[in-house]
Structures are given as C-alpha cells and as structure tokens.
Amino acid sequence: MVMNAKGRPTQAGDTAPQQIAPPTHTGNRALLIEEPLIFESGDFSGSGVDLPEPGDSPLRLGGYEAAAAPALPGLSEPEAMRHYVRLSQKNYAIDMGIFPLGSCTMKHNPRLNERMARLPGFADIHPLQPQSTVQGALELIDRLAGWLKELTGMPAVAMSPKAGAHGEFCGMMAIRAALAARGDIATRRRVLAPESAHGTNPATAVQCGFTVDAIPADDGGRVDLAALKERLGTDVAAIMVTNPNTCGLFERDIRAIADAVHEVGGFFYCDGANFNAIMGKARPGDLGIDAMHINLHKTFSTPHGGGGPGSGPTVLADSLAPFAPLPSLISDGTGFRLIEHERDNSAGQAFGRLVAFHGQMGMFVRALTYMLSHGADGLKQAAEDAVLNANYVLARLSGVMTPAFEGHCMHEALFDDRFLKETGIGTIDFAKAMIDEGFHPMTMYFPLVVSGALLIEPTESESKQGLDVFCDALIGLAGDAQSGLVERFKAAPVYAPRRRLDETRAARQPVLRWEPKDPAALAAE
Predict the structure, then answer these.
(1) Fold of 376-508
(2) 112-370 — its CATH code?
(3) What molecular function does GO assign, one term (predicted)?
C-alpha cells in the first residue's frame, strides 16, 4: 500500500496504489470547505448590516458607556449563515450515524418531542408566574412523576434536580438528613463505592461531607460481595452502586448487597444513569434501593449535547421520602401547587431547598412525550432492544477484539486492549482511525478498571444494518492492526478537517480565546 500525506483508502483489504492528491489553492478539498474562525474572516472596520446613525439622545448608563467599539467582526447575513453551516458540516451528530459512546446513551431524539417542548404554554412560561396560570405545566410534571414512580416502584420522587450528578447530590443529602434525624450523622461518615462507579459517585459523597471507601470488583466485573461485607460496620452511612454498572453488567447480587447494607443501618443509593437497560424489566424499588436518580436526558430521549439542559429526578423509598427537598408538588383538590417553604411542608422533613425553581420544563415535556409515545410495553421493548443491540455488537466483535469480561452484557459492550498487544498500536490510535471510517469513537479508557477500555453503547434506536456497517469497520480496523499497518493508525485521522492534535499540550496549554496577530492594529480600528 502506498503511503501519502493526504490519507489512505478506508476499505479493508484495498491495497491498490493511491494517487497523491495535490494541494488546492484555497485549502478546500471538494465539499470539505476550509473555514477560518469568524474573527479571521470578518471585517472589524464595518458592519454587515446597515444601521441608522445614533441620535443625540443623552446617555443614561451612569458613566459606564463603552470606551471603544467592541472587537466584533462585521459579517453580512449570507456570510454569517455560510460560516455556521460550514462549521456544522464538520461536526459528527446522531443524525449522521451511530454515536457509540458508552455510558452516555446517545440515542435518536424523536422530533415529536421537540415539537411538544415548543408548544405555547410550555416553551414560553416563566417560573415566577402565578401558579394559577401554569396549572397545565404543573399537571404535566405531576403525571411525569407518576410514570417515574411506577417504572421504579418507588413511592416518592424529587423532580427538581437538574442533571444526574445533581440527582445524586439530592439523594445523598436526603440520606444525610435521615441519618441526622435519627442521631447517626456524627458516627456514620463512610460511604462505600465500587471501583467501577461513575466518577461523580465518590465526588458527590465527599461533597456531602462523607469519606469514601472503594470496593473492588470481582473477576466477573461486578461488586465483590465478600470484600463489601468485610468493609461494613456501624460507621457506614451508605453505599453507592451503579446498576447496570459501568462495565455494562447487571449486579446479580443487588439484593444481597442491599440486605447487607441495611443490616448495619446504612442506606442504598443507586446511580440510575443506566436505567434505560432495565426500565420495564426490573424495578429498583423491588431491589432494596433507597434512592436513585434518573437521567431523563438519557433514558427518555434528548441525549447529551441535544441542545438543552439535563434533568435528574431522584426517586425515594419510604425510608427517605419524608426528607425530599423543596420545592415539592401536590394536588389538593383545587388544583396543583408547589410547596416552596418549610413552614408549609407539614408532610415531611425536607433537607432544604435544592434549587430556586422546580426543574427543567423542556426536559419534562420531552420525557413525558417519549413515555406516552412508547407506552409501558414500548418502554420495555426499548430496554430489550438496547440490550439486544449491545449483545449483537459483542458477539460480532468478539472474534477480533477482546471482551473485558465473559458472558452477556446489558446495554453496552466493553472490550479491553489485549487485541492490540504487540501491534505497536494503542487504544487512542484505534479511536483516531475510526474517525477516518466516518464514526465517532466509542468511550475510550473508561472504566478505569479495564486496561485500554473501549466501551460501546449502540442504544435501541440503531438498526441491524447500521450495526453491521459499524461492526464491519471495526473488524477491518482490527485486521489492519494485526497486519502491522502501524503507520495508518499513527497518522489517523487523515480525512478529518484537522489532523491529530498534540493532546498532552492541548490539555496543559489550551488556547481558550482568539488573539489578533496585531493587537495594536485592531485597537486602532
């Protein structure tokens, strides 16, 4: 195969000599348009639109008027439109192909959900409106809360957390309040967390004033039950377990873990980031869990980067329901209303006010739309299809890549880097070569308990045909690695708008703002 500076064929087994592509005068490569920064293309001396000259009205800024014009480039409407369209064409998106990031649930975002979230009465309401004017929105929140309680088998839910980590904080604060109420907070300072836990788990525990004790995994990638029991004691406040866990495996000993922790007086917090793998199949409330957050923006559409904030409602068992935070929503026969002050909260011992307002309305609308569109049977099928797709990927790739653990997986398939040993190619090189094949890489090097991890989550919205194209590409890349084509991997990506970065330097010396080449000239303008 002929190497060249512009790239190499991406078809596995294609060894035909490649013509060296000549450089272009513009830097463009056909439809791959070279696009500078907007500051590099705009004209600082003028504006892209015609504006009337300001009148002689007196300034009313109290002496805070600008000393000079802002350093903004003046572009016309066509120029601005072309700039952002060209930038959008350099981005990978879920609407272009599979987004296999593990533990992130990058699924298709149904456009119906977006249409509902933009309905008047949902999109244009204000959190300080009188509650009598937003009864429909409050009813929607209440109905969504009902679905969440039914799906999880939990009697209470706090709707206000803004994201998964915020939901964790809510659950752990409820646990802290419950310990304080029974007089145990001074002695129970230890939280147990498996080594494969999401990084937010130990961080949240520390933020709530606890210390963290790591629990190792067994050879099967699950919590080592014997090691867990050795660390139990009357100083344990809680355990935080992700289930299905970050290795893509269901914790088979979940009931035994819950019973053991409860026996010593601790609470069980479950990270519900992967709830999409078990919704409709297993209810956390039946597994002995006391608190669990749910990422609405993952399980019930609008994946990460979907254009809006997240939402992490936290379901609570009877043991923690009285300590749910304010504000809370009730229906008293005359309509729906929010309880926003402790003096009005006769039903419980709220640990305090978690946020200024009650949640993220756009995410509530999207999530309930997703639920009503699927129905209870459809949500169950979505979980089944997610697990089926992940196991299909696991089965297809197991012959050329090395699964981290034996047996079936849940919603994501985890591989380690043993298949790359002795090739001179690392996990990061494999990921960069995937970009040339037209795929966003899977989650790399996580979880940390697996060497050179490659974590793939296909989600339920991927077709078999799409999964086959993805798997064929990875099988081809694995074959190239075994064939000694090291230079291909070290040079990748070669077809991307930008070549491989010096990632260490980018992390340690990031350039976070544009600076003009001649600051004096710009100031003179």
Answers:
(1) Aspartate Aminotransferase, domain 1 (3.90.1150)
(2) 3.40.640.10
(3) glycine binding
